[in-house]
From TrEMBL:
This is Protein FAR1-RELATED SEQUENCE. Its main location: nucleus. One of its GO terms (molecular function) is zinc ion binding. The keyword Metal-binding applies. It comes from Nyssa sinensis. One of its GO terms (biological process) is regulation of DNA-templated transcription. Residues 1-41 are annotated as: Disordered. It holds the Pfam family FAR1. Keywords: Metal-binding, Nucleus, Zinc, Zinc-finger. Residues 556-589 form the SWIM-type domain. It is found in: Nucleus. GO terms for cellular component: nucleus. InterPro entries: FAR1_DNA_bnd_dom, FHY3/FAR1, HTH_FAR1-11-like, MULE_transposase_dom, Znf_PMZ, Znf_SWIM.
């Protein structure tokens, strides 16, 4: 090849740059350091300049990369001139801003789903050009062109670290992540552990959750199509054994698994009573298969999370979410929840409006708060914890007016007028701030304590390296384990001696009907009610704290019909009467809470013994579960007096003696072993 041909040879690291960016000698003149205007001031002298020398082109790249990081952008290799071993060899290299060039045109493939991702490229002309010279004998590289003029905003130090060029996972961290994955913990838990190990603030690791998921995905060596076939086979096997197990799925045009949703018999039964308020958490992925995972959960009458269903989706779009919600409603016989809590996702929001038009949609507060460290830690510095405490205070307010005034004061106090996250939170306040949600029932799932409990419950279903085909079984085991643990906690709650604090007949009456969890919530309101004064008005009652001279809540009471309501909407929000309504009932000589205000979902529910007697011999597991419920009820009733306890102890001893006289079948022994393994 001729020398001229060697000089003209150009190689582009990104082919799309060939048509979108031109940095030849005619468009980039030699510049001196004095003529080079920096887009961002820097306090150190490590600034590229014309004539600067480097031993290798890699050294020049590293230098320019460090400079870019300090300034707020990243770089990439653009093109080379010449080629090693041909003519003069490699003679020139160009490094450009990561936003140089224009969006490359992708060729569409009908058989492959396209990811609609927005390109960050905007034609930025910032660059560094180096040329090889042998003037001093040994070859070296000199800077022959430099421009630092950007047509886009540069990132702050706390933001630039999230650019892909600066996100790295060291070999040591890779080994640690793989070790964590084998234990079955979630990616979120891995991140928290590594933050603690490295003593860094949340969100300050040199890599993100997405990077960890990509790493785990690269180590997966199973065939997706085989996994899908195994998963469907597994679901059909479970359906054969348990006709009440329900699942739905869709296949794409190539007959490959696209979406799948399922629910268990116990979950459908729980939903009948506790499906009024539901959390649909879609923020997780089944890491080993890289599929978005959605989990439906609720809260039972003992204040413990209960599982309703699961869904795996190929894509997170309107079509997929609509299908998932339709499948869920099908499992639950068309019964939609009163309220549903989700993450902030526009496609999911639209799907809920379409498929559950009568359901109130709100955002999970714990999913919002989880993002606070990355949003506000660096911005607020030492005042972060002070701001967070103020946010929670505003979140829990009762009155909309108080929230609006408090939010304005908070923004002023912390200087957050231009913060985009604060602006976004305020724009969405109707979906997460409690003052705007108190007229809707959420079963207490918006409180910090209960949200942590639900989040911990969901983590049980996440396994970093599980095989897809085994996931349905693993969830079933986790649900069964949680059901049994819940039974034990229920028994412990029922055995606790309930301490009456007010001596009011309403309190003792409610204690016999409500679960200990629900009664404790009502008791709090009864104690507070004693501190309030009520004034009869023409259209109801005005109730306010005895230390206040103004304000208060309006309570409307119709004694003959047993109807009472308060402007604070506490009952509508939690299913527990508020202190204002209880004060009016007390001053009106009402000695029992009206029946309608002791809702079934908060009562001590016992399964009728006829259901157990009518069970068929085949459904052994269900009969064991019903027996556990009966034993729980027996303990609850027996613990109410010494005489009851004596009778129960005597009769159970006789019953145990009779049972031990009966033969034990081999099937029964296998069932016992299975129960113990799951405990």
């Amino acid at each position: 090849m001729s020398e001229e041909a060697g000089q003209m040879m150009m190689v582009y690291d990104d082919p799309s740059d060939q048509r979108s960016l031109s940095l030849d000698d005619t468009s980039s003149t030699e510049e001196s350091p004095d003529e080079t205007r920096l887009s961002l001031e820097t306090t150190n002298d490590a600034i590229p300049y014309i004539g600067q020398r480097f031993a290798t082109h890699d050294a020049a790249y590293e230098f320019y990369s460090e400079f870019a990081k300090r300034c707020g952008f990243s770089i990439r290799r653009h093109r080379t001139e010449g080629k090693d071993g041909v003519g003069k060899g490699l003679t020139r290299r160009y490094f450009v801003c990561h936003r140089a060039g224009n969006t490359p045109i992708k060729t569409s493939n009908e058989n492959k789903p396209q990811r609609n991702r927005k390109s960050s490229r905007c034609g930025c002309q910032a660059y560094l050009r180096i040329s090889k010279t042998t003037e001093l004998g040994a070859p070296e590289w000199r800077v022959t062109g430099f421009a630092n003029h950007h047509n886009h905003e540069l990132l702050e130090p706390n933001q630039v670290r999230f650019l892909p060029a600066y996100r790295t996972i060291s070999d040591t961290d890779k080994s640690r992540i793989l070790m964590f994955a084998k234990t079955g913990i979630s990616v979120q838990q891995m991140m928290r552990l590594m933050e603690l190990e490295k003593c860094v603030e949340p969100g300050y690791l040199p890599f993100t959750e997405k990077d960890v998921r990509n790493l785990l995905q690269s180590f997966r060596k199973v065939d997706p199509e085989d996994e899908s076939i195994d998963l469907l086979r597994m679901c059909r096997n479970i359906k054969d054994k348990d006709p009440n197990f329900r699942f739905e799925f869709t296949l794409d045009s190539n007959n490959r698994l696209e979406n799948i949703a399922w629910s268990y018999a116990s979950s459908i039964q729980s939903y009948e009573i506790f499906g009024d308020a539901v959390v649909f958490d879609t923020t997780h992925r089944l890491t080993a298969f890289d599929m978005p995972l959605g989990i439906w959960v609720g809260m039972n009458n003992y204040g413990m999370p209960c599982f309703f269903g699961c869904v795996l989706l190929r894509e997170e779009n309107l079509r997929s979410f609509s299908w998932a919600l339709k499948a869920f409603l099908g499992f639950m016989n068309g019964k939609a929840p009163q309220t549903i809590l989700t993450d902030q996702n526009m496609c999911l929001k639209e799907a809920i409006a379409m498929e559950m038009p009568t359901t109130k949609h709100a955002l999970c507060i714990w999913l919002i708060v989880a993002k606070f460290p990355s949003w506000f830690n660096a911005v607020l510095g030492e005042r972060y914890n002070e701001w967070k405490a103020e946010f929670y205070r505003l979140y829990n307010l009762e009155a909309i007016e108080d929230f609006e005034l408090g939010w304005r004061d908070m923004v002023n106090s912390f200087g957050l007028h231009t913060n985009r996250h604060i602006a976004n939170l305020y724009a969405l306040r109707l979906l997460w701030a409690l003052p705007y949600l108190r007229s809707h029932f959420f079963a207490g799932m918006t409180t910090t304590g209960q949200s942590k409990s639900i989040n911990a419950f969901i983590q049980r279903f996440l396994s970093a390296q599980t095989r897809l085909a085994h996931f349905v079984e693993q969830v079933a085991v986790a649900v069964d384990f949680k059901d049994q643990a819940g039974e034990q906690q229920t028994m412990q709650q029922n055995l606790q001696n309930i301490c009456l604090k007010t001596g009011a007949p309403m309190e003792s009456h409610a204690a016999t009907i409500l679960t200990p969890f629900a009664f404790s919530k009502l008791q709090e309101q009864l104690v507070l009610a004693a501190h309030y004064a009520s004034f009869q008005m023409e259209d109801g009652f005005l109730v306010r704290h005895h230390t206040k001279l103004e304000g208060g809540r309006k309570v409307y009471w119709v004694p003959r019909e047993g109807i009472i309501s308060c402007s604070c909407h506490q009952y509508e929000f939690s299913g527990i009467l508020c202190r204002h309504a209880l004060r009016v009932l007390s001053t009106g000589n009402c000695f029992q809470i009206p029946e309608r205000y002791l809702p079934l979902r908060w009562r001590r529910i016992s399964i009728p013994s006829t259901k157990l007697l009518n069970s068929t011999p085949g459904d052994h597991a269900e009969r064991v579960q019903l027996l556990q419920s009966m034993v729980s009820t027996l303990i609850t009733e027996s613990a109410k007096s010494g005489e009851r306890l004596d009778i129960a102890t005597e009769q159970v001893s006789i019953l145990l003696s009779r049972i031990r006289e009966q033969p034990v079948s081999s099937q029964g022994m296998r069932d016992i072993s299975s129960i113990h393994r799951n405990l």
